[in-house]
Amino acid sequence: MRKFKNPMLVLFGLALVFTSCGDQKKGNSGALTSNAAEKVYVAPGEHDEFYAFVSGGFSGQLSVYGLPSGRLFKVIPVFSQDAEKAWGYNEETKPMLNTSFGFVPWDDSHHPDISQTNGELDGRYVFINGNNTPRIAKIDLTVFETTEIIEIPNSAGNHSSSFVTENTEYVVAGTRFSVPVPQRDMPINEYKGNFKGALTFISVDPEDGGMDIKFQLMMPGFDYDLSHPGRGKSHGWFFFTTYNSEEASTLLEVNASQNDKDFIAAVNWKKIEEYVNNGGGTKMPSNYAHNVYNEETHTATSTMEKEVLVVNPTDVPGAVFFLPTPKSPHGCDVDPSGEYIVGNGKLSADLTVHSFTKMLEAIEGKKYDGDAYGIPILKFEDVLAGTVSQPGLGPLHTEFDGQGNAYTTFFISSEVVKWKLGTWEVVDRQPCFYSVGHLMIPGGNSRKPFGKYVLAMNKITKDRYLPTGPEVTQSAQLYDISGEKMELLLDFPTVGEPHYAAGIAADIVKERSKKIFDLKENKHEYGITSDADVRVERNGMEVHIYMSMIRSHFNPDNIEGIKVGDKVYFHVTNMEQDYDVPHGVSIIGANTSELLIMPGQTETFVWEPKQPGVWPFYCTDFCSALHQEMQGYVRVSPASSNIDLSWSLGE
Ligand code: RUQ
Ligand code: CUA
Questions:
Q1: Given the CA of residue 411, which atom of ligand 1 is nearest to it?
Q2: Name one Pfam family in it (predicted).
Q3: Which of 191, 205, 629, 647 is 20 to 30 A from residue 178's alpha carbon, by CA?
Q4: Taking the alpha carbons of 481, 487, 490, 496 in that order, is the dihedral positive or negative?
Q5: How far is the CA of 310 from the centre of ligand 2 (A)?
Q6: Is the CB of 110 under 6 A from ligand 1?
Q7: Whether the Cβ atoms of residue 382 and residue 358 lie closer than 8 Å to each other
Q8: 460 lines ligand 2 (CB under 6 A)
Q9: Where would I find the beta strands (DSSP E) of 445-500?
Q10: Atom of ligand 1 nearest to the CA of 499
Q11: Of residues 384 and 1, which shows the higher confidence score?
C-alpha cells in the first residue's frame, strides 16, 4: 500500500464539515434585511455605480456586470470563438486567435486588470491572461472589444498574469508550469535544474497601448502562481508567489507540499529594464504570435515574432530576491501603500505579511539565508511584517479597501475574513456560499481603492439556485463593506468560472464609450462608404460581394451568376450612423456564424454553396419595424452554367 501524508486530503475533510447544511441555514435570505435589497436595487433606467469585469475562466471570455445590481451587460469575446459576435468566425477576427500552434479557438481566462496612471485606475484598457496557450489580451474600453493579443513564448500555464504596474509601463505574464527552455525532447524526470520558469514583462505604449515583450526573466523551475506590482514606495518592484520549490514533476499534491516554505520572488524590474536598455540580455530565437485589431480597417493582422530578449537573473545582481513564505502560497497581494506584501499559504494556518521596508533593509545588510540557483534568499524573520494568526482555512486571495483593512478569502472554511493591516487582528468574517476563490474590491489593486463593496467569486453553489442538471451555475456574492461589519447583499450567477475581476467607477469609463464607427473613416479593404460602390466581382472561382445594409434592406438583395464550387465572400458594411443600430446577416448553409455589424463597420463571411437553387439570406438582429423584410436571395447555378454575374435592388 502507498503511504504518504496528503495535506489536501486532510483539508478536504475539513471542507466537508465547513460547508455542511449548518452553514446553509445561515445563508438563507431570511437572514437578510430588506435594507439589503434596497442597497442593490438600481431602478429601471438608472445606471449602476461600478463596472465589474469578471473573468470567464474556462469560457475564455470576460463578462461585464454592473454593481451593485449584478446585472450582466456584455460578454466580451477574448480567447474563445463567439458565434454571437462572430468573434473568430468572421474573416476580420480569425487572425486574433492565431498562435504558434495555429488557430486556437479557446482558452482559460483568469485575471483581468485595468490600466493605471499614477497608481489609479484610468479606465483605458483591461488586460487578461489566457492560461492554457499562454497569451495576454488587451480590451479597449472605448469599444469593449479585444484589440490585441500577444502570445507568450517559453511559458506554460500563464497564471501569474496579467497585472499592470503603476503607470501601465508593463503588463506581467508569469509561467505557472516550468518547462524546458527552449522546448525539447527530454526525460520528464530530469526536470530538476533543467526546467525554467519565465517571467515576461510586456511593455505597453503610453500613446497607442501597443504591447511588446520587453524581456523575459528566466527563473528557476518553480511554479509561479500569482503576482502583483509594487506601488507607491515599492513602485519599480514586482512580486510573484511560487510553489513547487521542490521542483517535483509528479504527484505534486504531495511532492510539492514538502518544503515548509516556498518563496515570494521580488523582482526589481526597473533595474532589469535599465540593464536591458544598456544592451543587457540575450536574444533568443523564438516563434510567437502578435495579433492586432485595427479599428480603421476593422481587420486584425497576425505577425509571427521571431526573437525574444532573455535575462538571466544572476546577471543582474541586486535585481531578484526570494522571500521565504510558508506552505505553497497562492495569492500575492500588495496593499495600497505599497508597504505590505501578503502571501497566502494555501496549507498554512497563518497569513504571512512581508514588509517592503524591511526587505530593503535586509537587502542593504546583505543578510541572506543562502541562495537558490544563485538568487539570494532573505531571512524570513528579517522581512516579516506580521502574521494574521489562524484566520481561517485555505487562504487564497486578499484585497484592500484603502481604509487600512484587508479582506482575505478562505476556500476551505468558505468565508471572507476582514483584518487590519499593521495590527493583524481579525475584525469580521462572513460566510461564502460556497468555497470562495478570488474576491474583488473595485480599484483594490491600486493606490486608491473605491472601497464600498467586495465581490466574492465562488467555486461551488450547490443549493443556491434552481437546479439545472449536473452542472449548476457559478456565482458571485456582493457584500457591503462600508461599515465595520460586512453585510451580504446579493447572489448573482456568472458566465463560466469567475477567477478574478476588476472593478472601476462607471463614470471613469462611460463618458469615453464609443457610440458608432465613423463611416467616412472606414478603411476596410472591402468596405464601401456609399451605395455607389455596391458591386459583385468575380475572380476565378472567388466571388466578392460588396454589400451595404441599412434599415431595412441589403444592397444588393438579388444576386445571380454564382456557381456551385465558388467561394463567395460577403463583405458587408453597415451604413447606419446611429447609436445602437447593428444589423446582422447570415445565409442558409454557411459553415460559419452570423455577422453582427456595428454602424460604420465592415465584416466578412465566406459561403461555399454546395447545391444549385435560390438561397435566402436575412438580417439576424431585430433592427426596425421592417426587420422581417430585411432579406434577399442568391441564385446558385451548376458549376458548368454560364449565367453572368448580376446584382440588383428593387428592380
Ligand atoms: S486563481 S481562484 Cu487564477 Cu486563485 Cu482562480
Ligand atoms: Cu437589420 Cu434586422
A1: 2
A2: nos_propeller
A3: 205
A4: positive
A5: 52
A6: yes
A7: yes
A8: no
A9: 453-458, 474-480, 487-494
A10: 5
A11: 384
User: What pLDDT shows up at residue 367?
Assistant: 86
> Any idea which ligand is nearest the CA of 594?
2
Please tell me the predicted confidence (pLDDT) of residue 31.
54
**Closest CA to ligand 1's atom 2:** 437
Joined grid coordinates for residue 30: 431570511
pLDDT for 24: 42
Task: Quote the ligand 1 centre to 332 CA distance (angstroms).
Answer: 11
**Domains of the chain as residue ranges with CATH:** 50-510 (2.130.10.10), 519-648 (2.60.40.420)
Asked whether the beta carbons of 324 and 295 are under 8 A apart, the reply is no
CA 222 to mean position of chain CA atoms: 23
Q: Is the CB of 619 under 6 A from ligand 2?
A: yes
pLDDT confidence band for 7 (50 / 70 / 90): very low
When pLDDT is averaged across residues 350-363 and rounded to a whole number, the result is: 97
How many angstroms separate the CA atoms of 414 and 395, rounded? 9
Residue nearest to atom 1 of ligand 2 (CA): 583
Asked whether the beta carbons of 289 and 98 are under 8 A apart, the reply is yes
Residue of 227, 396, 432, 455 with the most ligand 1 atoms within 8 Å of its CB, for mutation = 396
Report the C-alpha gap between 397 and 408 in whole angstroms.
5
Atom of ligand 1 nearest to the CA of 437: 2
Assess whether the C-beta atom of 459 lies below 6 angstroms from ligand 1: no
CB 134 within 8 A of CB 157: yes
Residues 6+ apart with CB under 8 A from 561: 536, 538, 635, 637, 643, 644, 645, 646
Q: Looking at residues 245-271, what average pLDDT do you find?
A: 95
Comparing 354 with 20, the larger pLDDT belongs to 354
Please tell me if the CB atom of residue 447 comes closer than 6 angstroms to any atom of ligand 1: no
pLDDT per residue as tens digits for the range 28-68:
445 566 689 999 999 999 999 999 999 999 999 999 999 99
